[in-house]
């Protein structure tokens, strides 16, 4: 909207009519005081201001308008028929005007200037709106950034606290596991002596007093068998508990380890007439005694669960891989060794695979196959202690393949 300020009605009427012909919305004021009141209430894009007016001339009105934050950017065009001297024109610019037109004026020139200053004002207002929007956006983003930083700081604190809690829990768990392993070892060790005496005295009674009593001798044989099974179970528990103790990793020749394990199983191998094939295996960082126990348990397991009508065949071979994975492709050189122990035994249903590594878990009755149910649990614990993986593939009646993946080099010297 354009405000026309003049103390003469005919001037107001002519200018208003001219501007309305070109679709400008206009407002009028007959004095400087009225103009200032309207300016404070309404928003104007251009002010056409007469210089010579009673009480408050145009210069004073312009200075008042320029002094207000709300109105200082409104373009003021001075219009005068009397004060046409250069010094009056200069005073008009000094008081805040953007142009000074003397009467009589050319209508087209006036309209051109009004249109120009009108557009400039509108553009300036749009720019201000954009600047204000940008300022609000910046402030909002700054607040959001501060909130994000606060949240991140809180999260970091929570993570740090949680990490401390988990670290302490791990320490407590390790301590309790060590205590539990020590307790299991001591309990199993302390059971050995009384059980040894029980078995000794039972055998003395059997040989000395039950020779002529077949029924009693038969029952005593059951007692001896049960006692021997208990001793085997206690020995297995001792072996399992020892795995929790810290040990040093050192370079281990797996070929020598398997040779020793085969020597320990020599009688069982001969009894079963088993055929054992072992390819050359690499050297790795390990705990030698535990590696020997691992292969001895796997070989013993393969011999135990062999078919009665078929000669047992066991094959041990390996390949190098670059990942701790059952499926990684073989590479040379590799960071890990993947070892396979294959047999042609009775196999097992794949639905039971997850159970075979659980301590005391048996898939067959004691009358079918002897054992404590700890052997494969020990194997799994040894593999985990060496930061490796173990898995098995098998089908019932088609044998089984145990696969172990172990690092060639350990990240630290103890475990």
Automatic annotation (TrEMBL):
Domain of life of the source: Bacteria
Gene3D superfamilies noted in UniProt: 1.10.287.130, 3.40.50.2300, Histidine kinase-like ATPase, C-terminal domain
Region forming the signal peptide: none
Protein name, UniProt field: histidine kinase
Modified positions (4-aspartylphosphate) in chain numbering: 50
E.C. no: 2.7.13.3
Biological processes, Gene Ontology terms: osmosensory signaling via phosphorelay pathway
Catalytic reaction annotation: ATP + protein L-histidine = ADP + protein N-phospho-L-histidine
Gene Ontology MF annotations: phosphorelay response regulator activity; phosphorelay sensor kinase activity; protein kinase activator activity
Domain Histidine kinase: 186-410
Pfam families: HATPase_c, HisKA, Response_reg
């Amino acid at each position: 909207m354009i405000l026309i300020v003049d103390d003469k009605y005919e001037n107001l009427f002519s200018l208003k009519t001219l501007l309305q012909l070109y679709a400008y919305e206009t407002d009028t004021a007959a004095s400087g005081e009225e103009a200032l009141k309207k300016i404070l209430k309404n928003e104007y894009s251009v002010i056409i201001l007469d210089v010579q007016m009673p009480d408050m001339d145009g210069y004073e009105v312009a200075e008042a308008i320029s002094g207000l934050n709300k109105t200082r950017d409104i373009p003021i065009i001075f219009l005068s028929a009397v004060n046409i001297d250069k010094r009056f024109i200069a005073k008009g610019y000094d008081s805040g005007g953007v142009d000074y037109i003397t009467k009589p004026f050319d209508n087209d020139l006036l309209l051109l200037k009004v249109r120009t200053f009108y557009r400039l004002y509108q553009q300036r207002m749009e720019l201000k709106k954009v600047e204000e929007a940008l300022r609000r956006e910046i402030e909002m983003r700054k607040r959001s950034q501060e909130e994000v930083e606060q949240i991140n700081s809180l999260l970091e604190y929570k993570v740090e606290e949680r990490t401390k809690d988990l670290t302490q829990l791990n320490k407590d768990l390790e301590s309790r596991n060590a205590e539990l392993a020590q307790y299991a070892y001591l309990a199993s060790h302390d059971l050995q002596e009384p059980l040894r005496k029980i078995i000794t005295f039972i055998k003395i009674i059997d040989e000395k007093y039950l020779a002529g009593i077949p029924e009693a001798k038969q029952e005593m044989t059951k007692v001896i068998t049960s006692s021997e099974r208990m001793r085997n179970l206690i020995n297995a528990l001792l072996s399992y508990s020892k795995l929790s103790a810290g040990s040093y990793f050192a370079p281990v020749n797996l070929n020598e380890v398997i040779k020793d394990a085969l020597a320990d199983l020599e009688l069982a191998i001969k009894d079963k007439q088993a055929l054992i094939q072992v390819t050359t295996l690499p050297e790795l960082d390990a705990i030698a005694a535990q590696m020997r126990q691992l292969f001895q348990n796997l070989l013993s397991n393969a011999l135990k669960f062999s078919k009665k009508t078929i000669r047992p065949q066991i094959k041990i071979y390996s390949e190098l891989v670059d990942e701790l994975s059952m499926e990684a492709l073989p590479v040379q050189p590799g960071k890990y060794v993947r070892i396979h122990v294959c047999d042609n035994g009775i196999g097992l249903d794949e639905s039971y695979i997850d159970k075979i590594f659980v301590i005391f878990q048996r898939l067959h009755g004691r009358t079918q196959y002897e054992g404590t149910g700890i052997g494969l649990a020990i194997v799994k614990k040894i593999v985990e202690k060496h930061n490796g993986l173990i898995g098995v593939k098998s089908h019932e009646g088609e044998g089984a393949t145990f696969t172990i993946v172990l690092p060639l080099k350990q990240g630290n010297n103890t475990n």
